[in-house]
Amino acid sequence: MSEELWRWSAVRTADAISTGLISSREAVASTLERIQQVNPVVNALAEVLADEALAAADAADARRRAGEHLGPLHGVPVTTKINSDQRGLATTNGVVAFAKDVAEEDAPHIENLRTAGAVVVGRSNTPAFSIRWFTDNDLHGRTLNPWDPSRTPGGSSGGAAAAVATGMGTIAHGNDIGGSIRYPAASCGVVGLRPTPGRVPSWYGPPEQDQLLGVQTMLVQGPLARSVDDVRLGLRALATYNPRDPFCVPAPLEGPPLEHPRRVAVLRDVGVAALDPAVDDAVSTAARYFADAGYEVEEVQLPLFAEAWRLWWQLVQGVEFEDLARAIDEYGDEAIRRSADNQFAVTKRMHGDVALDAYVRGYARRGTLVRELQVFLQRYPVLLTPVSAERTFEIDADVRDVDRMEQVIAAQWPMMSLALLGFPGLSVPVTEGGGLPIGVQLVGPKFREDLLLDAGRVIEARNDVATPVTPNCSSEPR
The Amidase domain covers which part of the protein (predicted)? Predict the structure, then answer.
């Protein structure tokens, strides 16, 4: 085996460990060596768990030798995000004041990864409070995009995306309430899945702590990886039913075959933000790939996405993040305070002061929009959209001023709208141009992630974005 093990896919690594071709210790040790080489450059992992990971790898090898049942990720090195509870470790969420908030037990999704046999080699970085598309905080520092350090790696799962893009783990755990898996995946040239809400169990904070309505209906946990098949494997590991999540649905991972010809609808623009020509070209390229593979491809108009994008900002930012805003004022660093101020200023421009009756009517309208998209996806089971209307943002675009923040928010309409509506979305890289990858988003019916993953393989088989990459960074992050 002349090729370094850290380059191997999760599927290949899991199979090799289960058959005894390699040991988990070999795979984990190779990954830790890669982390030692690369992480000081990109700062994707806020915490490296070398001793714990090697001990877990040895235990995994002992269980295999004993003939015990092996989970789908048995002995495979993965990373988890610093904003999820992991027993015995601090859930910092990138905030200095939370540096000693040690979790007593694993969050349900972390528990599922352990049950699947995964070996956690590190914890990935996130912006403070995990509410920016830019990964930087005063506690752990800035994560760099390994393709171009002048551009964001995305957020809030920017550390997760940069880690898998550079070979620091086969699969990364992330979460997404408005693009926090899909945008980092597109920014770093990897695959990221936002599952249907309820597919992967989740919970934040103490069991008795009530969750905001937006968190209950929109926040999901999901995998990022260098290939569609690895994302599929990551979903299988994460999506085990857990009663600690009141909304977890034990739905099958594979649905029935489609009765009609395979169709893809293409949605480019909903009147919110003009597409960058390179992004438009990427959508056209992906559409051509589907046509070449025998799909029926049709351009469509879906104004409901523009309305859903506006509703996200009205309901979540306009009302539900008020408590978070107070926490940011008290504990946040300068960057998150400026970003939050700009976000609230844009929301005020869009909606003014959101009263209780507008909040109630907004959630009522949400149901109608969900119904409309659900009916549409019966005819077109796969919807192709941009991930963002712009190419990967320059570092700290959101803190420059309110006008630039307004442009940033507008560009993200494909991800925000989908989060509000509660459908699964897959971010897949399509092409590389100007030194940066460009991806597209695939949308499908609820609990039919399998359709998106199958469609994602059509793009993956033809694209020219190769990972893992060697970081193109001339200096260390601050």
Answer: 26-453
